[in-house]
Each structure stands twice: as structure tokens, then as C-alpha cells.
Write a structure and sequence with these properties.
By secondary structure, the chain is mainly α. It contains 6 helices and no strands.
């Protein structure tokens, strides 16, 4: 069952979940930082809602992403559209 849900994630959703796991973070922590509810972030990760254009810069700033991480995020967002 778990793999079925993961297969439905957008590239952005995969990036976000991997980032949270690598940084010991839960969904609510990231959604709070973005100023949305956890359900909203989850819907974006599954492609049910569009990725707000400001999220790329917000995530990069909030989490102090380095150039490589920013590029990975940017690519994930582009592939999710």
C-alpha cells in the first residue's frame, strides 16, 4: 500500500518528502513554515493543487538551501507542472 501512495507523488512531492526525512522534519513543520495547512501541502505533493509560485523562493530561504539543493527543488517544481 505504501508504494502505491509514493507512486502518485509528483516530483515536487518526492523532493519535499525526501527533504523532510533527511532533515528529521514532519509534514506539519514544513506546512507551518509555508503558512498553509498540512492537508494543503499534501494535496500539492500529490498534484491535486498547483504549486504556489512563491514556494520555490520561500523553501530556499527558510531552509537555507545551497545551490545544488535549489537546483534540485527547481527541477522538481518544473517537472511537476
Amino acid at each position: 500500500m505504501k508504494n502505491i501512495a509514493i507512486n502518485r507523488l509528483t516530483p515536487f512531492g518526492i523532493w519535499a518528502r525526501e527533504f523532510r526525512i533527511e532533515n528529521g522534519m514532519i509534514l506539519k513543520t514544513m506546512s507551518d513554515a509555508l503558512g498553509v495547512g498540512a492537508a494543503h501541502l499534501c494535496s500539492v505533493e500529490f498534484g491535486e493543487k498547483p504549486i504556489p509560485p512563491e514556494w520555490e523562493e520561500q523553501l530556499a530561504t527558510i531552509y537555507h538551501l545551497d545551490n545544488e539543493e535549489r537546483q534540485e527543488l527547481s527541477q522538481a517544481i518544473k517537472k511537476s507542472k
